[in-house]
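Batch manifest, entry 17 of 40.
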Amino acid sequence: MPVVTRKILAGSLALTPLTLLLHYAFGVNGTAIFILAALSLMPLAWLIGEATEHVAEHTGPGIGGFFNASFGNAPELIIALLAVHNGLPDVVRGSVIGSVVSNLLLVLGFTMIAGREGELDRRSLFLQLGLVLGATLAFFIPAIPSWDGNPDRHSLYVLTLPVAAVLLAVYVGLTIYNLRVHSAEHQEHEPSEGAWSMRTSLVVLAIATIATAFVAETLVGSLEEFGHQLGLSDFFVAVVIVAIVGNAAEHGGAIVVARRGKMKLATEIAVSSAAQVAVFVAPAIAIFSWIVGPGLPLAFRPVELATMLFATIVVGFVVYDGRARRWEGFVVVGAYVACAAAYWISGDR
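Output type: structure tokens
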């Protein structure tokens, strides 16, 4: 990245305190704060990408991708619980599916377009895709009964709880296994000269994540008014706009890393993030939702589960040979456009 660009991004970090000051101290809302918050997320994306790359110097791309996905998804979990508290269950469910689909198709596609053609960690990516596929099939258990009647009834939440618990247990077990494999593969490597220390990298990641949570909450709070001004359905706003904006820092981090030619790390960020949303964020939201409001059933709509399954299959075919190609990135982004069109046509329930 050119030095001038880095200086501009570093200077743009000042937008974050400005956005928070205007929103929380002066009560500024609506389209103006939406635009300012969106601009604030761009330098935060760069900072998360920088910190993740330095973490990967010590851990390898697999664990580096896990750290980026973990820190990137923390704000989404917070925002989702706030939305449950505010009585917006369809927004939460739409943003969850939108996050999985946008990470698999939009982020992965742009990393392939922005980066260099090269090898991918096929084993790790297929493990993550397997988690997404398993979660998709599990979601059908509470979803199918919800297609007839009230999707937020308590009986569906009771049905959701064991599904969420199993998904969390599977995720924890496979993640521990995956991290051990990556740690063993990377144990003989040393960080390059000029790399941040592990402690510094983690502190920067934590600070950037906390800032992103507040900025994203500010932005999501103004999304409804912004969407209505454009004539968009609440479902489309949730599944496309909220999902993309809520993960903007993480999305940008993956693309920044891809631009530097580190395709293994960049693709790990995209696919690992999708897996974490499917088998960690979604179940965690369901389990903890009763603390902040009515329990949230994972009662997804048919179009949501269909696009999630479609995205998983498309990415599986793309990464099957273990190589990233630029033209495949355009195909994957095109698949996301098709999903967005389906969301547009579906409208609200």
